[in-house]
Please model this.
Amino acid sequence: MNGDEMRKRWSVMSEEVISGMAEWRQQHPKATFREIEEEVDKRLSVLRVRMISDAAISSAQAEWEQGSRDAVCPNCGAKLVKKGKKKRKLQTRGGQEVELEREYGVCPRCGQGIFPPR
Ligand SMILES: [Zn+2]
Model:
């Protein structure tokens, strides 16, 4: 995913957050401050997680592509063998789980599986 694709995707999503929230507000004219806050947080957190995972995936791809010749094992320095994509779960600071699909490599010398970069 390049910068333009990300920008498009995120602006579509933020547009959805904004219009969804405006709609919700109309449907909940008597919502309390707390309820409004929760609703905004809930909607923004979807966007937040998406932005984090898109951005993380794109840097993982960039690093692998750029360093495909020197994607090496941190233990022994052997060149990693690509093993396709694997899913990996990471936690955001907000405690949400983000699933990243990233290129996965295995070290032919020590057999360690690695997601470059971390
Ligand atoms: Zn190794």
User: Anything to note?
Assistant: Residues 73, 75-76, 78, 107, 109-110, 112 surround zinc ion (CB under 6 Å). Residues 87 and 101 are 4 Å apart (CA to CA).
